[in-house]
Amino acid sequence: MKTHLYKFLTALFILLTLNATAQKAPAGKVWPIAKANTWYAQYKWMSGADFIPSTAINQLEMWQAATFDPTTIDRELGYAEGIGFNTMRVFLYSLAWQQDKAGFKKRINQYLTIADKHHIKTMFVFFDDCWNAGAKIGLQPVPKVGIHNSGWLQDPGNRLNNTGETAMLQAYVTDILTTFKHDKRILLWDLYNEPGNSGKKAASLDLLKKVFTWARAVNPDQPLSVGLWDWSFEKLNSYQALNSDIITYHDYTDEASHLKTIQMLKTHGRPLICTEYMARTRGSKFANVMPMLKKENVGALNWGFVMGKTNTIYAWDNPMPDGSEPKEWFHDIFRKDGTPYRAEEVELIKKMNGK
């Protein structure tokens, strides 16, 4: 009850902030609520996953030229198409752009071509405060046995609020957005994943403000958002909600708790997309949460798709040093050969998607 009350008060605070500052928002910048709802209404119910090919341990391994793997991407997005998924959330990486600007954009276009072939829209993510801070271009480390996301990278990580990096980060965001600002294969730009994570808290607010400013200067056709994820981060949450065209959020709790999150966030009047859910051992499962999300007309993107180098079949806080397969997978839906982890889950997903 305490958690639900806190969610309510946080949502109320954000709503009051929105109302109080609406006249201060630059005209033509944040989408009006009516525009956001009209945009959302043109699409069928959004369902999908956060996607990285099973052959990549992190964002750099996905995007660098030497390890970009369109064959695996094509095969695995084929699995997604087969169960009716129509949206994938995909993380970009600033150092991949800095290393090879033209090549990076070419690979983004190649990814989008593959996704479009499978009738999948893409939600791209720029920055991220999760997991490892010290990224290096080149060959990426091998996975640590039995450890969830052992090689996933923060971006900019330990370069956060480094004034020497700011110009590069601005050029990166501006270049990618300018190149793809009219691309109908892109659904939405998710500017910053879980700002404040890894103990950063309010230290991420400066970059959060900057990335919104940079993106609004480009003014892409697609909406902008940064997902709400930690209800204790009042300053970050209010800024994210105030500046997002579409409200996105993360929730790994069970159905009852997750529904209360939705009820609170609906007070904003904007469309909702859950861009991370489904952690089986925490009670967030396809069987109980996905039907509820569809009933509430909330977009549903679960974390994890094909088991692979990210090791997300293992839980965040429960490593398995012997590398054995857990009895209950934490995330992910398919084995590498396309065999479902649980056939009944795949049948449910197909049913939810009208397949």
From TrEMBL:
<keyword id="KW-0624">Polysaccharide degradation</keyword>
<feature type="signal peptide">
    <location>
        <begin position="1"/>
        <end position="22"/>
    </location>
</feature>
<protein>
    <submittedName>
        <fullName>1,4-beta-xylanase</fullName>
    </submittedName>
</protein>
<dbReference type="GO" id="GO:0004553">
    <property type="term" value="F:hydrolase activity, hydrolyzing O-glycosyl compounds"/>
</dbReference>
<keyword id="KW-0858">Xylan degradation</keyword>
<keyword id="KW-0378">Hydrolase</keyword>
<keyword id="KW-0326">Glycosidase</keyword>
<keyword id="KW-0119">Carbohydrate metabolism</keyword>
<dbReference type="Pfam" id="PF00150">
    <property type="entry name" value="Cellulase"/>
</dbReference>
<keyword id="KW-0732">Signal</keyword>
<feature type="domain" description="Glycoside hydrolase family 5">
    <location>
        <begin position="145"/>
        <end position="303"/>
    </location>
</feature>
<dbReference type="InterPro" id="IPR001547">
    <property type="entry name" value="Glyco_hydro_5"/>
</dbReference>
<comment type="similarity">
    <text>Belongs to the glycosyl hydrolase 5 (cellulase A) family.</text>
</comment>
<dbReference type="GO" id="GO:0045493">
    <property type="term" value="P:xylan catabolic process"/>
</dbReference>
<dbReference type="InterPro" id="IPR017853">
    <property type="entry name" value="GH"/>
</dbReference>
